[in-house]
Design brief:
Elements lengths: L2 H10 L6 H13 L5 H11 L4 H23 L16 H22 L8 H13 L11 H24 L13
Helix pairs in contact: 2-4, 2-5, 3-4, 5-6, 5-7, 6-7
Length: 181
């Protein structure tokens, strides 16, 4: 599901939520380990502040979205991408979406953490960086380097999330560990 498709689903259901923030929350929650689909539906319904009718109407679409998100996180080719608006939006709006994604990823991770939550030193650094990115400011003058910096930031987030996921899921046979530079 693309950012626009999720945005359309939220519009249809009259849900006031940011697709990037929701995807961040979901990925954080999924990173903590196996989650019963019903628990995920309940957590999402609470996060999205959905009424029961809205949750029922969205259930199939959201379950597909959950499965797709988990599959992308588990992919050993490291093809995971945070769900963000496309490059047609102005850079400050895309940066707000990046901040929403990261802060909600940390929130989802916090909700799903158990007593055995352990990450590597690199994973801890990645989580600290993601938390800092969640506080991103858009009070700056955009220049020609802005787009390149944005692309590098999104790539860093992508790799950081995969690093944390692989730390939390050592049972997955990953040939190449993602590294943060």
């Amino acid at each position: 599901m693309t950012f626009e498709q999720l945005e359309d689903l939220f519009f249809t259901l009259q849900i006031q939520a940011n697709p990037s923030g929701f995807h961040g929350f979901l990925c954080g929650r999924l990173s903590c380990g196996a989650v019963d689909m019903q628990q995920l539906v309940e957590a999402s319904s609470q996060w999205l502040a959905m009424a029961e009718e809205q949750a029922e109407a969205a259930e199939n679409s959201l379950e597909d979205f959950y499965q797709e998100s988990l599959s992308n996180l588990e992919d050993i080719s490291f093809l995971f991408q945070p769900l963000l608006p496309d490059d047609e939006l102005p850079l400050p709006e895309r940066l707000v979406a990046v901040g929403d994604w990261c802060s909600n990823y940390i929130s989802g991770l916090g909700e799903g953490m158990g007593a055995e939550f352990e990450v590597s030193v690199e994973g801890k650094e990645a989580l600290e960086d993601l938390a800092a990115i969640g506080q991103i400011s858009t009070d700056f003058e955009s220049d020609d380097d802005g787009e390149r910096d944005y692309a590098e930031l999104v790539e860093y987030i992508r790799i950081a999330v995969q690093l944390v996921f692989s730390d939390l899921h050592p049972e997955l046979d990953t040939q190449a560990e993602p590294t943060i530079h």
